UniProtKB/TrEMBL annotation:
Function: Heterodimeric electron transfer flavoprotein that accepts electrons from several mitochondrial dehydrogenases, including acyl-CoA dehydrogenases, glutaryl-CoA and sarcosine dehydrogenase. It transfers the electrons to the main mitochondrial respiratory chain via ETF-ubiquinone oxidoreductase (ETF dehydrogenase). Required for normal mitochondrial fatty acid oxidation and normal amino acid metabolism. The electron transfer flavoprotein serves as a specific electron acceptor for several dehydrogenases, including five acyl-CoA dehydrogenases, glutaryl-CoA and sarcosine dehydrogenase. It transfers the electrons to the main mitochondrial respiratory chain via ETF-ubiquinone oxidoreductase (ETF dehydrogenase).
Assembly and oligomerization: Heterodimer composed of ETFA and ETFB. Identified in a complex that contains ETFA, ETFB and ETFRF1. Interaction with ETFRF1 promotes dissociation of the bound FAD and loss of electron transfer activity. Interacts with TASOR. Heterodimer of an alpha and a beta subunit.
Name of the protein this chain belongs to: Electron transfer flavoprotein subunit alpha
Cofactor note: Binds 1 FAD per dimer.
Keyword RNA-binding attributed: no
Organism listed in the record: Sander lucioperca
Domain annotation Electron transfer flavoprotein alpha/beta-subunit N-terminal: ranges: 37-218
Cellular component GO terms held in the UniProt record: electron transfer flavoprotein complex; mitochondrial matrix
GO-annotated biological processes: animal organ morphogenesis; fatty acid beta-oxidation using acyl-CoA dehydrogenase; mitochondrion organization; regulation of fatty acid beta-oxidation
Pfam families referenced in this protein's UniProt entry, alphabetically: ETF, ETF_alpha
Localization: Mitochondrion matrix
Family affiliation: Belongs to the ETF alpha-subunit/FixB family.
Amino acid sequence: MKPHNDEQQLPNCETVIGAAAVPKVLSKAFNIPFQSTLVVVEHNNDKLTPITLNAITAASKLGGEVSCLVAGTNCATVVEQISKVQGVKKVLVAQHDSYKGSLPEELTPLILETQKKFNFTHICAGASAFGKNLLPRVAAKLDVAPVSDIIEIKSPDTFVRTIYAGNALSTVKCNEPIKVFTVRGTSFEAAPTEGGSAASEDVAAPSPAGISEWLEQSLTKSDRPDLTSAKVVVSGGRGLKSGDNFKLLYDLADKMNAAVGASRAAVDAGYVPNDLQVGQTGKIVAPDLYIAVGISGAIQHLAGMKDSKTIVAINKDPEAPIFQVADYGLVADLFKVTKSAE
Ligand SMILES: Cc1cc2nc3c(=O)[nH]c(=O)nc-3n(C[C@H](O)[C@H](O)[C@H](O)COP(=O)(O)OP(=O)(O)OC[C@H]3O[C@@H](n4cnc5c(N)ncnc54)[C@H](O)[C@@H]3O)c2cc1C
C-alpha cells in the first residue's frame, strides 16, 4: 500500500483511507491510520457555545470516531447537552477549579494527557477566541503546525482556508502525525443537538499549571441576538457619522430581531464598541440577511460577511464596492431611507 500522505499517488483512495468505514481491526492489520478526532468543547459550564456544534460537523466529515472534551468547574449540564449531539461517540469530562475561565495554560496539559491516553489523529475546536487562544498552544506542545480557521475538509489531511482577507483560498496538506486545527463556524452546519447518545468518561485532571490565574470577566449584556449566530444582522459604517446616529440601526434591528454590527471605521471612530466589529479583524458572520448601511465594502469588511445568504447595501455612492457583493442595493442617503423604515 502506498503512503496515504501522498495525495498525488492516491488520487482515488483518499475517501477510503479517511472514511469512517475503516474499522479499527482493518486499520491495525493494514497499518491504515484509524481516524479519531477530539473536539474541545467551548462552554460556560451551563451552555454549549454554538460554534462547537459546527466543529463537531467538521470533525464528523473526517470519518472515524468523534470524541468531545468538556473541561470545566461544574459542567454536568454541558456534558448532558453534548452527549445528545449527533455524531459524538464519547464525551470525556474533566472537572477542576483550575478550568475556570478556560485558560489555555490549564487546558493544554489536560489535552496533552488526554492525547497520550487516546492517541487522536485530529484535535480541533471552533475558530473563536477560545479556540484561537488554545489550539496554537496545544500544537506547539505537540510540536506540530496547526491549521487555523479551516472552511472545508478535502480529506483527513487536506484542508481549505482563506488567505489575503478572504480573497484567495489556500488548500493545505498537513503531514503532521496529529492534525490540530480550528474550524470557521460559518462554513459548517451545526450538528443536530438531538439524536445522539454518547457515553461519558471521566479523565483525570493533571495538577494545575498555576502560571496564570482567572480573576473575572465582564460581558456585554444585550437583549439582541448574538452577532455571530443571529439570522439577521444590521451593520453600520462611517457613513452613520456618529454614535448617536447608530440609534437608527438599533431601532431597525429591534424591529427585525436582528443583531447590530459595524465596520472597523465605525469602531475606530468610537461610534460603537469593538465587539460589534465585523471583518477580517472582527467577527465572521454569515446570517440569512446582512444589511450594510453606510459601509463602503473594503475587502477587510467583506472578509467577515460575504458568506451571508442575502446582502442588502444602502450607500449614497453608486460606485461603492459593497454593491459588487450585494444581492440588493439601494443608492440613497441612509438618513432618509432608515428614517422612512421606522
Ligand atoms: C489589517 C486591516 C484589518 C482590517 N480589518 C477590518 C475589519 O475587520 N472590519 C472592517 O470593517 N474593516 C477593517 N479594516 C478597515 C477597512 O480597510 C476599511 O477602512 C473599513 O472597513 C471602512 O469602513 P467604512 O466602510 O465604514 O468606512 P468608509 O470606507 O469611509 O465608507 C463609508 C461609506 O459610507 C457611505 N456614506 C457616507 N454617507 C452616507 C449617507 N448619508 N448615506 C449612505 N451612505 C453614506 C460612503 O459612500 C462610503 O461608501 C481593516 C484594515 C486593515 C488594514
